[in-house]
Amino acid sequence: MSLLEEEGDDPEERRRQMEAREAAQNLGAVIGLAAGAAGAAARQLRKDPPKPDEPQMKQTLG
Predict the structure, then answer these.
(1) How many alpha carbons lie under 13 Å from residue 22 in its C-beta half-sphere?
(2) Rounded Cα distance, 9 and 59, in Å
(3) Which ranges of the chain have pLDDT less than 50?
(4) Residues 6 or more apart whose Cβ sits within 8 Å of residue 17
(5) Is there a contact between 25 and 19 (Cβ–Cβ < 8 Å)?
(6) Which long-range contacts does 39-43 make (Cβ < 8 Å, 24+ apart)?
(7) What is the residue-wise DSSP string for the chain?
């Protein structure tokens, strides 16, 4: 039903609607990335630092 209604719209209105949809999708992607980065940062901050008496493992190449 909505496809039939869109056919009657003028091309300029359809273009504006498409741009609005794309902008909303882009905004959603940015919000998702920001939320993921914030979650990763929060997890990193919650990690307990190694205790002084525990040996710390270092990765070396070679």
Answers:
(1) 6
(2) 63
(3) 1, 4
(4) 6, 9
(5) no
(6) none
(7) -HHHHHHHS-HHHHHHHHHHHHHHHHHHHHHHHHHHHHHHHHHHHHSPPPPTTSPPP-----
Residue indicated by tokens 């909505």: 2
What residue type is 41 in one-letter code?
A
**Residue with the two structure tokens 């939320």:** 35
Residue 4 structure tokens: 């039939």
Taking a C-beta distance cutoff of 8 angstroms, is the pair 56, 50 a contact?
Answer: yes
CA distance 49 to 10: 62
